[in-house]
Amino acid sequence: MRTKVLHVVRREYLQQIKTKGFWIATILIPALGLGFVFLQVLLSSTLIPEGKIGVVDLTGRLYEPLLLEQKSVSDTDGDAKPAGPEAKPDETAKRMPTKITFLSVPATSGTLAEVRKELNAKVQKKELKAYIVIPEDGLSSGKVEWRARSVKADMFLRESVGRALGRAATKERLRDQGVDPAVYEKARLNVKLDPREASEKETPEDAKNEGANLAISGILFMLIYMSIFVYGAQIMRGVLEEKSNRIVEVIVSSVRPTELMLGKIIGIGLVGLTQYAVWALFAFTLTLPGIVGFVGLANGSIPSIPVGTLVAFVVFFLLGYFVYAGLYAAFAAPFNSDQEAQQFVMIPGMMLIISAMTWIFAYNTPDGTFARVLSIFPFTSPLLMFMRISVQPPPAWEIALSIGLLLLTIWGVSWFAGRVYRVGILMYGKKPTFPEIIRWVREAD
Amino acid sequence: MTAAISLSGVTKRFGKFTAVDRLDLEVPVGVTFGLLGPNGAGKTTTIRMTMNITKADEGTVRILGRTLDEEGQQRIGYLPEERGLYRKMTVLDQLLFFAAIKGVERKTALERLERWIDVMDLRPWLKKKTEELSKGMQQKVQFLGTIVHDPEVLILDEPFSGLDPINVVLLKDFLLDFKRHGKTIVFSTHVMEQAEKLCDRIALIYRGNKLLDGTVKEVKAAYRDRVPLPPPVEPEPELEKIFIKAVEESGLAAPTQEELR
Which residue from A443, B34, B35, B61 has the fewest beta carbons nearer than 10 Å? Predict the structure, then answer.
């Protein structure tokens, strides 16, 4: 590479690194990220179902069992959450703690209308959070009314009460069949699938942790996405700045326009890598013993990132960056202001957003047709091929094809961008139309 | 002797509009050359083609006897009409960057700048960002950026436009100094007075065609019979000189940058 390009790279890099904005963003982004996680933890503790619930039990059989179920919730186990490794097989995971109290409201089908009136008033006055009406055939139909001030709010409370009621009803129905309800608790078994790769070598524990996997793939995926977006915009601003400061013609009397563009792209790319390096350092510091306990992250174990995923991350970040950086440079060069450039810059923006929105296909069905096509199409592949690799490595030829097409695209985009850039940076005044830009590309040599 | 700049049959079209039409120009080494013409005559396009910033559709451009390559670029100082500086860069970083992309080592650049920094009163501003400088001061930095690599040929597009009288004088002195050192200067202008004072040779272009070309003396001789002579005038001091004298005699210090901003 010619030394002039290096001087441009150096200037771009140092100018960015020297700004306060760079360091503020570098520190603020992970701080905000961590803050967000803590906030979620904090908020989720306020989501504990809570409140006084009136119970109108027309079957006359469910109120007492419901109370029992509710009582057992606070100290024992029950459903959904997967068991920790320390849990014994017959013991199922913890139930969500609740602070629900029930209030029995005696009624018959005759007095129901009047009782309802009274209860509605209490709910409106907030003396009761809600009340439920179990009809006479409740034990067979499973239909129970939930009356609250809003039909939308208190989702967790409603679900919690529903689950307790379900368990109570199931036990009553077993009793009807002559089975001791105690058998139910003993017989209940939550099955947990232990995911392993179909190969002789054992999958490391970390890789089986789906939550952590999703988090890692997701975070790295978002990093690629955001970086391309942020640094792409940076390139656009840089190009426009050089134009509006009228400096670009001074520079291109010494440096070829394509070299100026290349230098800019590489320089800003290095700024991005520097930011990653700082973050990696942060992350490394967080995993030091002691700090982990202090921060209380992930029960003291931060899952390690598989090497393959890391390599794919770097490769596809760089390839994606070069594809999009070229586009941003090309789409900024013909214009004089952010506003003018906006409509064209939307094109790479939309392509990025589409890649980001379709991540779930690559995550859930990495070998589905849709995921395969998107992970080979060069404008979505940087994000989606990365996601596929991190979930389930696709055949080598697909990765090779994806990388090959990306390299080809980088070449094509650079060619196109170089031509638009060369003409565009010297064009002032009238905003050019798309056909005019195409003409520049054809005529420039 | 090889010409500093030689254009032959150079043509540039933008769509149907022919900006420059089969233009021939020859600028000998050591000559100060004025490229004259009204706005839109094709001066900037001609200069850009000379600098290989815009490619000529036809014809050849040779600078110092060869087509412009990287080495050639390093022997030319170019001040475009559309000019500016990086606003967020410090004056010194900026000058060093200009030197670097012209292939000048940092040490050499610093040595060379040393003299000019004092001539131009730039020392207190070296670590300041360009945007903090007054416009006049920015213009000085811009000149300095153009010559920091000690070029053999200077190509300036409307160098005097937008300068205040003090910087006009600074630039003129500077060009005369350059000329004394045997270097070649090409500049475009539509102000004939400047051309008359500074140039050895001129060319007049209009609508992309060359109308006149030659030494100032030759051109004047050719038109002596056809253009009325000016009435004889009493010699009197030039307004420009008066302006500078008055400023000097006021005994006031030049305004500081803080005051100007």
Answer: A443
